[in-house]
Amino acid sequence: MYKKIKDKFILAIVAGLIGDIALTFSDEIFLRLKISKRSFRESAAGIFVSSQREATSKGGIILGQIVSLMMSISGAITFLYTFSKTGRKHVVTKGIVLGSTLGCVIPALLSSLPMSKVKPTDASSNLSYIFSHCIYGITTALTMTKLADDSVFSSERPIDSAYSTDTTNLND
Q: Residue-wise over 99-117: b if at least 16 C-beta within 10 A, else e?
């Protein structure tokens, strides 16, 4: 038996990381099957680089993976708040809804940024992003609910740190 995670932020990092691995794996499958024309990592790197050639370079792919990981961890924080407020029932359904929502919103935001140089405009690439985010959502939700200590989602434990029982005084 493993020790359950009690810290909400660490839980979000771990669940987001594992979810991002699933997202990347799914994205790679869609690329290899030629369903998607460019990887999610390339699209994410397109925010920071000036050309598609740079986005597909080794450095661009690493940059895109880091951006994807940070978005996945941020998404996991959303999952954490949702589970804290609504409970752990229907975890797969919540994972699909939250993941697919992120899969719609994130690419739309990325491609709408004026500095984004790499934008997937074809339906199959965008559909594959949404499906990959469903995989991410299910994986993140299951990971989060399996690794979390019961106290993380307890209704007695508020989300807002202002109500924390931690006695550490930061003003001293």
A: bbbbbeebbeebbeeeebb
> Do 77 and 71 contact (CB within 8 A), yes or no?
no
pLDDT tens digits, one per residue of 117-146: 556 667 888 888 889 999 999 999 999 999
- Confirm if 26 and 131 have CB atoms less than 8 A apart: yes
Q: Is 103 helix (H, G, I), strand (E, B) or coil?
A: helix
| pTM to 2 decimal places | 0.81
Tell me the sheet residues that pair with 5.
Answer: 148
Span 136-172, pLDDT tens digits: 999 999 999 999 998 888 754 444 444 455 555 555 4
Ramachandran area for residue 78 (φ above 0: left; ψ -120 to 50: alpha; else beta): alpha
| Ramachandran assignment for 120, one of left (phi > 0), alpha (psi -120 to 50 degrees), beta (any other) | beta
